[in-house]
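Submission checklist for the structure archive. All mandatory fields must be present; incomplete records are returned to the submitter.

[x] Identifier: V-type ATP synthase beta chain
[x] Organism: Treponema parvum
[x] Residue count: 460
[x] Sequence attached
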Amino acid sequence: MKGIEYRGLNSIDGPIMIVRRTENVFYGETVYVRDRSGEKRTGRIIDISDEAAVVQIFGSTTGLDLGRTTFEFLDRPLELRVGEGLLGRIFNGLGEPIDGYPKIISDESVNVNGDPINPYARIYPRDFIQTGISSIDGMNTLIRGQKLPIFSGNGLPHNKLAAQIIRQARLKNSDSQFVMVFAGMGIKYDVARFFIDTFEESGVLAKVVMFQSLADAPSIERIITPRCALTAAEYLAYKKGMHVLVVMTDMTNYCEALREISTTRGEVPGRKGYPGYLYSDLAELYERAGRIKDSEGSITQIPILTMPNDDISHPIPDLTGYITEGQIVLDREMSQKGMYPPVAGLPSLSRLMKDGIGDKMTREDHAAVSAQLFAAYSKVKSIRNLAAIIGEEELSESDKCYLHFGEELEQKFFCQDEYENRTIEQTLDIGWKLLSGLPREDLYRIKSDMIDKYMPAKET
């Protein structure tokens, strides 16, 4: 029976408490818990048996005792209030305002777990998103409705790169602008402040919805943060017809919170102690990106995760790579050389790139230039390994030519200023200029008529 407060807990272990089950409670239901002084905390049911219900508290359980704590089942899942006033606001991980302004005035609340999308209703992503960053636009193109994660490491400039993408992202051949939804999980205060200041200085804060669960917030809150963010994104995309870019950082902190809860519940661990359902839990978040029929809006996701020990085979990046459509990998060696953005040329890829580039979308030569740059850069890596063994002096003239090409590619194509916004035409022109330094017979991935049309004359 709803609206009734029950007294007494069976047990408390960290953020998990076990209560006596009543009739008609359901998995995911919201629970209000009050301590002996009447202070209210929010939780949700995460497991049910015939006799008991397991409740996960979003916050500290300090002050709760077994005999005098009361709890109330609300007969509804955890919900986020949505409405016209979402844009320009900053919320905590549970969707409560923390920017000093009142709650959103709206009578519409939405289940944070979202509604499943009928696969038949999905539209295949095809529209090119210009980020202004050559290493992404030219070789790892972002497509509207795609989920393209950034694989990074501690100390690498992934936050700076994400902020640049948010500032500069726009649809090619369209006046439609992106609105942004930002979800920070377990991030430090200076990181949160960096994003807020960056958005304010560039004038995009009015088009951003921010959800922040800082490092000093209960780790359990990180489980809900991306769900609140994606619920806001779905409202803006599918109800308001907006193009939404969702940036979630750091997914590693999210997975650590999942592992913490799993351990507390005594579940059998999987790889490296993470729960066996890590794949399906991540898929539940990532698959909320995309486009659907009868809606002008779209959701494009850029999850950011820091790979523990820069290990790309770690369960978090490994499973993320299976679910998403590619990855942008940041390279520590490039970053240590002072290169920005340090996007690794060969491990990065975008699986939807082929469907969003070419004539009438970017430029007819885009696919060929990208493929040739990949092939040439791969040869550069092989020659560098050879040079490390026999010495650069022993290399042939052709190999030295490729070494020079590799240096030029990294310095002029991969590297650019944090506030430099290149068009796709500028990116491709830079690529052609670099390829002009290679022998024409080596450009086997580009048709001859295209070389004649776009290749600049060699400088004398």
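[x] Structure attached
Curator remark: Residues 346 and 374 are 7 Å apart (CA to CA). The radius of gyration is 25 Å.
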